[in-house]
Amino acid sequence: MTTNNAFPRTRLRRTRASSWTRAMVRENVLTPADLIWPLFISEGSGVEDPVAALPGVSRWSVDLIVERAKEARDLGIPCIALFPNTPADKRSDDGAEALNIDNLMCRATKAIKDALGDDIGVLTDVALDPYTTHGQDGLLDAKGYVENDRTLDMLVKQALNQANAGADIIAPSDMMDGRVGAIRDTLELANHHNVQIMAYSAKYASAFYGPFRDAVGSSGSLKGDKKSYQMDFYNSDEAMREIAMDIAEGADSVMVKPGLAYLDIIYRAKREFNVPVFAYQVSGEYALVEAGCAAGVGDRDALMMEKLIAFKRAGCAGILTYYAADAARLLRDGAFA
Questions:
Q1: Among the options 110, 113, 226, 257, which is catalytic?
Q2: pTM of the full predicted structure?
Q3: Which residues have CB under 8 Å from 73's CB, separation 6+?
C-alpha cells in the first residue's frame, strides 16, 4: 500500500491556520528554565554602573547582584553566571586576585547563596583575564606566549576557591588543554562531588567579544590576541575533538561560544555526543540586535525571541543571554507565542 502525500491531500498549511494548532504542533519550546543570566559584578555598595557598549546591561555591586539573583529566581530563571570587573589596582601579571577568598566573585557567590540557598544556581567563570594586567586568560612566558601547564595550576586553585565560596557550576572559559580533568580531580579530592563543570569546550577566537571585555575592564589592557588558545573559526571538526576531550575529562555539560554564528557546531555537538549543550549569546550578538532595533530594522522583542529559539532548534539545553530577564518576562506574561 502506498501513501500519496501529494497536494491537495497534504496541505502543510492546515496546521498553521490558527494559533492553537501552531502551538499544538510546535517542535521547540522556550521557557525561563532554558535561560542563564550573565551578570557583571562591581565594587562598592548600591552601585548600578551601565555598560556603555551594552545598552540595558549594568555592572552591579554585590548587594544589588543579590537583588538581581532574587529577580531571576522569581522569573523562573534557574541559574545566573557571574563575571567580575576587578579594580585595576588588584590586577597583576600573574592574576593572583583570582585566588583571593574575598575577591568580587567569591563575595558575590557567598552573598547569593546566603540569601537564596538552592533556590538558584550560581555559575562562576574560571579564567585569568579579569585579573591580569595583560588581559590574557593565562600566564605569559618571556615572549608573551600563554603557557598552558603553568596556567593550569592557577586555574585549578581558582576553581577550588570558587567552589569553596559556594559555586554550583564551575565554567572554565580559558581554553587551556587539560583544565577540565585537573579541575574535576581537585573538586573530587575536596569533596565538592556535586559541583558541576560546564566547559567552554568550543570557544572561538571571535570578533563578537568586544563589549564583554569592556564590561569586565580587560579590553584596554589586552595585549595581542587569543588565537593561540581560542579556536580558529574556520574549523568545526576540531570543535568535536575539544568537546570529546572535555567530556572524557569530566565535564557535565559543554558550551559553544559565540552562539548564533556557530549553530552548526551546536547541532553537531548535540547529535554526536548527546550531552547537555549550552550556547552563549555573547555581547557582540546582543549589541548588534540593540543597534539594529535602535536603527529601526525590526521589533526588539520579536528579534530577541527568534534568535533564542534558534539556539533551541539547533539543540541547546540552555542559553546564556543578557536577554534572560526580558525573555522570561515575556514568556511569563504570555506576550510571545
A1: 257
A2: 0.95
A3: 116, 119, 120
Crossing angle (nearest 10°) for helices 283-294 and 300-314: 150
Is 270 an annotated catalytic residue? no
Report the C-alpha gap between 18 and 121 in whole angstroms. Answer: 38
Cis peptide preceding 8, ω within 30 of 0? yes
Q: Which of 328, 213, 322, 209 is nearest to 257 (CA)?
A: 209
Are the C-beta atoms of residues 251 and 198 closer than 8 Å to each other? Answer: yes
Instruction: Report percent pLDDT > 90 for the chain.
Output: 91
More confident position, 324 or 222: 324
Give Cβ neighbours of residue 149 (< 8 Å, ≥ 6 apart). Answer: 178
The C-alpha cell that represents 283 in the structure block = 555581547
> Is 203 a known active-site residue?
yes
Give the active site residue among 113, 203, 226, 312.
203
Tens digit of each residue's pLDDT (9 = 90 or more) over 12-44 = 999 999 999 999 999 999 999 999 999 999 999
Lowest mean pLDDT of 111-120, 148-157, 164-173, 202-211, name the range: 202-211
Quick one: average pLDDT of 277-303?
95
* Cα–Cα dist 211/189, whole Å: 37
